[in-house]
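Hey, quick one: can you model this chain's 3D structure?
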Amino acid sequence: MTKLYLAIPCYNEEEVLYDTTEKLTKKFDEMIAQGKITPDSKICYFDDGSKDKTWQIISELHKTNRYVNGVKMSRNRGHQNTLLGGLMTIKDRCDCAISIDADLQDDINAFDKMIEDFENGSEIVYGVRSKRATDTAFKRMTAQGFYKVLSALGAEVVYNHADFRLMSRKALNALANFKEVNLFLRGLVPLVGFKTSVVEYERSERLAGESKYPLKKMLGLAWDGVTSLSMKPIRMITSLGAIVFCISIIILIYSFIVWCLGRTVSGWTSTVVSIWAIGGLQLLAIGIVGEYIGKIYMETKHRPRFIVEEELK
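Sure thing. Here's the predicted structure for all 313 residues.
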């Protein structure tokens, strides 16, 4: 049997924790009865500095539910840092860990197939959405565009996969060797390697509360993924600069020929357009280069990616 730990990052999840724990407890009871996981498997909640009663509820559940453990971060560090911090805290206590969001939009019935694949040799099992029937048209379009843009810009990601995955202890120990401060787990985990597999599932609607990844955060996450994992934006600037330089040489030759023929006419519009176009291009280039320099600056500080304030086990 497999000793399973669930890794569940939480930020202001007081509205869903009781219902989530009830459903996960029932699922654990079924899997234990079927001999799929050991009785000492755990449901681990990682509190990301919540402002509501999330940690209070986790502490209460820890006292009343034999499966529930908790890890409290010292402050809000964001979903990715909290998930990594929790995984690194529990990695040596389990055979494998499944990360899932507290709202249980990801299908807990996929646990069975994930465990089966793990026992058949997969070190990482990705939960991949088979369809997006519960999403609005706008959400579906932006989410699918998110993965396509990441792939186009060089970030290695699994299409339609978020952070619902199983990782073995071996894979978690390998992930611990990645020391980046700027975290994008969806791109880092594929770099671990090892044997992987995919389990498809249908995503449900959120039980209560609001999504922790609205469009603004999704765009920020995408940008972090690209700048953390790919040099393509810098290379695109280099290519664009080379193209603009070649065009400027052509314009210079053309202007010289026209001057020699005595047909020069001062053009206010073309001058203004050129200034704005080149100026905008330069600002864009400086901004992208600055983003990379900023990330290098943060990496060189070697600050801790997470700090555990309290643990219930």
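One thing worth noting: The domain at 4-230+305-312 is CATH 3.90.550.10 (Spore Coat Polysaccharide Biosynthesis Protein SpsA; Chain A).
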